[in-house]
Amino acid sequence: MQPPLVLVTIDTLRADRLGSYGSTRGLTPSLDAFAREATRFTAAVSQVPLTLPSHATILTGLHPARHGIRTNDGFRLAASVPTLAESLKIAGYRTGAFIGGYPLRGSSGLSRGFDRYDDEFLAAPEATERSADAVVRSALAWVEAHRADPFFAWIHLFDPHSPYTPPAPFAAAYRDAPYDGEIAYADAAVGRLLDRLRTLGLFAPAAIAIVADHGESLGDHGERTHGTFLYDATIRVPLLIKRPARPASARAAVDVPVETADLAPTLAALAHATLAAGDGQNLVPLLDGAAGDSDRTAYAESYYQNVLLGWSPLRAARTARWKLIDAPRPELYDLERDPLEKENRVAERAALAAGLRRALTGVEAGGRAAHDAGAAAAGESAERLRSLGYASGSTAPAPAGTAVDPKDRVAVWAEIEDGIDLATRDPAGAEQRFAQALRLEPGNGLAMKYLADLRYRSGRLRDARDLYRRAIAAGFRHADVYVNLASIAEHEGHPDEAREALTSAVRLTASDADAWNRLGLLDARRGDLEGATRAFSAAIAAAGDRAEPYYNLAIVERRAGHEAAAQAHLQEALARNPTYAEARYELGTGYLRAHDPARALAAYRAALAGRPDYAEALFGAARAELDLGKTAEARRDYERFVRVAPKEYAKQIEAARRAIDEIKN
Ligand SMILES: [Zn+2]
Q: Cα(84) to centroid of ligand 1, in Å?
C-alpha cells in the first residue's frame, strides 16, 4: 500500500512562533492541532538558512556540498543529483509541486521529477511571490484530480518571508508584528489544506510532514533576516511528521537532533520507494518509538557572504546540548543553559569544541563554494531576488588565514541589507546605508556596486562609472556591473570601451541574454554584421523564449541581403510575442519589397492594431493600399501619417503630401 505523501514547507518560520514549540502568541491553531496528531521534533536543524539550498536538501536528502547549491543565486541543481521526486515517480507516484516564492523557480533544477511544477505565477514580469491561499488552491485542485493514484504533493508557503505584508484581516490584527501576522495567515491556509484532505478521506491514510526551510533572526545577534549566521533563531526549525494510519503508540515528541536532510529518506521509506543513500537518515524508527542518538551532530552551513563578499564561510555542528560554530573566531554554546547563544564557551571547553570540529571535517574540507557565475542572476532576475532582500554577485575570497569573520562585520551587512530594502522606495536613504557600509569596510565591492546602481539610475553617470570600476578592482563580479559600464561608455561616445565591457559581461555570465542582445546591437551599429549575428544567436541560446533577439537577428539578416532568413526570424519573434508591432511592421516591409501588397497590408494592419499611431506602419499601409488600388484608404492613412509622424520624417511627410494631392486629382 503506497500512502499519499504531503510535504508542506513554510518559509522563514521560527520554531518558537508555534504554540506546540512553546509560543504563547496564539498564532498557529492549525499547526498546533496537527502537532497533536503528529510527532514533534524539538531539535530539527536546517542545513542552511537560505531558501533554495535548504529546499534542495529537503528534496534530495543531501547536504549542500553534495547537492551543490550553496546560496539562492548562481547555483543550479545538477542533472546527476538524485531527487526524492524522481524516486517517487519511479515507485509509481504522481508528483506535484506548488511554489510560493521566486527563489524556488523551476529553472533552479528543483522541478526535476515533478509531473507538475506550478511556478507559473512567475511568468508575470517582476512577480516574486504568491499568497498561501493561491498555492493551497492550486495544490488542492491537483490533489483532487489525482487522489485515486498514489501522489506526492509538495506545497511551499512563502508568506512569512520578508517583506512582511500579511493580507486582511491579519494586517490589522498584527499591525505591530507583521511577521507574526504572516505566520497566522499561513497557519490558516494550512488549516484549510488539512481540512480539505480530511473531507476527501486522505488525511488519515497520508504521511504528512510540515517543516520550515529556516527561521528568521529578527535582530538576534544583529542579524535582521536570515542567511548569514547559524544561531538557533534561523537553523532550528519546526518539524512535524504524521505517519500513515498513525498507531496509538506513536511518539508525541522526539528530542534527539535530526536534520531537514532526513525528510527525503523518511518520505521515501514511507512510500516504499528507493532513494540512493545520502546524508539524511530515515526517521521512521524514531516515529515508532526508537530512542535515537542524542549525540548525533546535525550540520549547518552558511556560504552567503563567502560567495558575495569573500568573507569566511560558517559551519556548525549541533548536538542536543552543544553547538560549535566553526569560524575565524570559533564559538561554542551550551544550548541547555544558554538557548539564546550569548556565552561563548570555546576557551573553557576546548576538547569538546575540538571533538565537534572533527565531526565537521567529515562533512567537507571547508574552503570555498564552487559558485558558477555563469548561472548567476543578472538584470531582471537579480532585481527579483533583490526585492526579496537577497543580494547577487560574487567576490574572490581572501587568502587563507586572513578571511573575515562575518560576526565582525555584522554592522556592514546590516547597512547593506537596509540599503537593499530601501533601494526602490527611498533611494536617498538607500544611498546613505551603502555609503555607511563603505565607511565601515572601505573595500566592500558589493556596497560599491549598489551605490553605483543608485547613481546610474539617477543619471550621475560619471560617479556610477568610477564606483563600478572600483568594485571590479575590489574583486567584485556581477554581469550587471559591466552591462551598466557599457551603457555609460556608449552614452559618452566610446563604443570600443562599451564593447569591451559587454564582452566582459558575457564572459562572466554566458547565460545573460540581455548582455548578448546589447552586444549584438552595438556590433550592428558598428557595421559588424557577423559579430552581431553571433551575439544575437547567443542571446537566443541563453533565453529562447525572448522575442527581441530574433527580431534583431532578422534586421541584421535583412541588411546582409538574406531576406528569407529575415522573414523566418521575424516569424520566430512573433511566435514568442504575437503583439510585437515592430516585427509585424518589418514583416510587412519584406512583403512589400517582394511585391505582395495584400500580405504586406495585412502585416501593417496587425502592427497598427497594437499601436494605432505607429507612423512607419501607416506609411507602409498607405503604400500597399495604393498598390492594391484602395485609394480612399491610402489617402486616409497618409493623412494620419502626416498628423502623427515625428519631424525627422520630413522627406516621407513631403512624399505623403504629394501622394494625397495625386489621389485628390
Ligand atoms: Zn526560505
A: 19
Q: Helices 513-525 & 548-559, crossing angle to 10 degrees?
A: 20
* Residue 423 to residue 421: CA distance in whole angstroms: 6
Ligand 1 center to 155 CA (angstroms): 13
Mean pLDDT lowest for which of 14-23, 90-99, 503-512? 503-512
Distance CA 567, CA 554 (A): 7
Residue 404 near residue 328, CB atoms below 8 Å: yes
pLDDT tier for residue 368 given thresholds of 50, 70 and 90: very low
d(CA 567, CA 552): 12
Q: Does the model's pTM come out above 0.85?
A: yes
> CB neighbours of 100 closer than 8 A, spacing ≥ 6?
11, 129, 130, 131, 132, 135, 156, 157, 158, 159
Query: 538-559: per-residue pLDDT in tens?
Result: 999 988 889 999 999 999 999 9
Of the listed ranges 64-73, 91-100, 177-186, 379-388, the one predicted with least confidence: 379-388
Neighbouring CB atoms inside 10 A of 370's CB total: 11
| Rounded Cα gap, residues 388 and 421, in angstroms | 8
Average pLDDT estimate for 636-651: 94
* 601 Cβ neighbours under 8 A, 6+ residues apart: 588, 621, 624, 625, 628
* 318-336 tens-digit pLDDT: 999 999 999 999 999 999 9
Amino acid letter at 204?
A: A
Does residue 53 carry a pLDDT above 50? yes
d(CA 161, ligand 1 centre) in Å: 7
> CB neighbours of 9 closer than 8 A, spacing ≥ 6?
55, 58, 154, 155, 156, 157, 210, 211, 212, 213
Separation of alpha carbons 321 and 339, rounded Å: 9
Question: Distance from the CA of 306 to the center of ligand 1, in angstroms?
Answer: 19
Q: What is the Å distance from ligand 1's center to 195 Cα?
A: 25
Within 10 angstroms of residue 627's Cβ, the number of other Cβ atoms is: 16
Helices 615-627, 631-644: axis angle to 10 degrees equals 160
Q: What is the 3-state secondary structure (H, E, C) of 610-642?
A: HCCCCHHHHHHHHHHHHHCCCHHHHHHHHHHHH
Using DSSP, state whether 347 is helix, strand or coil: coil
Q: Is the pLDDT of residue 365 over 70?
A: no
Whether 281 has a pLDDT exceeding 80, the answer reads: yes
Helix axes of 615-627 and 581-593: crossing angle, nearest 10 degrees:
30
Q: How far is the CA of 186 from the centre of ligand 1 (A)?
A: 14
- Residues whose CB is less than 8 angstroms from the CB of residue 640 and which lie 6 or more positions away in sequence, other chains included: 613, 618
**How high is the pLDDT of residue 371?**
61
Give the CA dihedral 298, 9, 197, 94, nearest 10 degrees.
-90
Residue 359 CA to ligand 1 center (angstroms) comes to 26
| Confidence at 436, pLDDT banded by 50, 70, 90 | very high
Q: Residue 324 and residue 320: Cα distance in Å, rounded? A: 12
Centre of ligand 1 to C-alpha 52, Å, is: 7
For 563, the grid coordinates are 531576406
205: CA distance to ligand 1 center in Å? 29
Residues 6+ apart with CB under 8 A from 356: 297, 317, 319, 322, 323, 324, 332
Q: Grid coordinates representing 72?
A: 539562492
Return the percentage of the chain with pLDDT > 70, whole number. Answer: 97
